[in-house]
Sequence to fold (128 residues):
Amino acid sequence: MKILPEDIKREREKHPEAVVMVHPECRREVRNLAHQVLSTGGMVKFAKESSYREFIVGTEIGLIHRLKKENPEKNFYPASTLALCEDMKKITIEKVISSLETLEPQIKLPPPVVEKARRAIERMVEIL
Fold:
């Protein structure tokens, strides 16, 4: 991710009341400057449930739109406008639909990996 410690420091100066939340894939130096280190889903949940009104967001810049849409009364500032995930931008709704319809591409994994993944998914479903 293209988020640097200087980006966090700059945004904290501009928005001193904002809580800093960053993605775990950020550099260690960036994570150390954050108030919260959260997955994308964790950021969405934290922003929604938090009493904070301002957030500096250290992850793929596209998340800002969703956060603003779901929390119109709160302010979200990107840690860096350079935080673009090129791989995420390759995924489109058309490609997802096609993949579900054709079940392609298929990924073959060794049985032990499949079993560990199955157990993890089953635990997640149990929680719901």
Notes: The chain has a mean pLDDT of 91.
